[in-house]
Amino acid sequence: xxxxxxxxxxxxxxxxxxxxxxxxxxxxxxxxxxxxxxxxxxxxxxxxxxxxxxxxxxxxxxxxxxxxxxxxxxxxxxxxxxxxxxxxxxxxxxxxxxxxxxxxxxxxxxxxxxxxxxxxxxxxxxxxxxxxxxxxxxxxxxxxxxxxxxxxxxxxxxxxxxxxxxxxxxxxxxxxxxxxxxxxxxxxxxxxxxxxxxxxxxxxxxxxxxxxxxxxxxxxxxxxxxxxxxxxxxxxxxxxxxxxxxxxxxxxxxxxxxxxxxxxxxxxxxxxxxxxxxxxxxxxxxxxxxxxxxxxxxxxxxxxxxxxxxxxxxxxxxxxxxxxxxxxxxxxxxxxxxxxxxxxxxxxxxxxxxxxxxxxxxxxxxxxxxxxxxxxxxxxxxxxxxxxxxxxxxxxxxxxxx
Length: 402
Prior knowledge:
Layout: H1 7-25, H2 30-38, H3 52-77, H4 84-108, H5 126-136, H6 142-166, H7 173-190, H8 199-222, H9 227-236, H10 239-266, H11 280-307, H12 322-332, H13 336-346, H14 351-400
Helix pairs in contact: 1-5, 1-10, 3-6, 3-9, 3-10, 4-6, 4-11, 5-6, 5-14, 6-12, 7-8, 7-9, 8-9, 10-13, 11-12, 11-14, 12-14, 13-14
């Protein structure tokens, strides 16, 4: 189980599942695999009309968004975002990392009917980005991981807001109101977690889990994307029991939920057309993910670091150098999970464009992974040289003493 909590293992499973899905979809077995995603597993009595693919993206992926929400709450209350001074620079960098890719996408698709896909390149896959950093940048100064984590958490918050605002269609106010009531009841029930022992403690957990499922159902029926229910539940539960739940769920989300989603989302047939026949969506995402994130995070983060520079010399060592900021910006270009979800939501009515968008997300993220790996590796080598030189200087100074 501890292996499935590893950032390296999580990133490896995600990448492996995506590659496997893409490969299998383009083998002779592909025509038999692809219809499985579209096969419906409906529950008419409850008004649930979902295909296998939607059960994965709306149902299973809710567990991932619950984890994201709890991590966000932890960072805001006790972590690296628990004060304005800590949060302001990564927050500005995150906003830049959303605006620049969205702007590049809009520029490439200007004058076409594909403008609704602008949110796709704005997301950062926190699990994948941290995994790449762990693989290629072990032993790097902790400030790099702290900044990346803060940036990615804030990026996830923006992505959640985008999904809630721009991918909600025809809301049913009755179900939406009931969902709000359910969230409030979940908040109240959550106060009793950890206060009992034995059977009563188990009962309290069961009640909260049932309320979470009811909330998911009501949000789904309201027309709001169902994963928002998991976000709401994660934010209203007390932090201590919520963190315990996340610890228990991590092997499931890392080992099952995210790989299954990556496999299902990446299982698309590569279009047998020339490069010139690909839609503007493909080129917009491929460019916007690596280039947009690089420009947005580097420029916004660099300006913010200058404006909000810490006057305390002891704290300035926590400020990222421009080289470190560029590496973090490239890690931010790994869209993957949330970008794939936004792609499905933005072009739900056109499977052909969804497929092209999926390939673009995979290619754009792959470009970001390769460049980020090179940059992070370079940072690690430079840091090793600095440490070695400092050690040699210290040894020489000690030897020169009388």
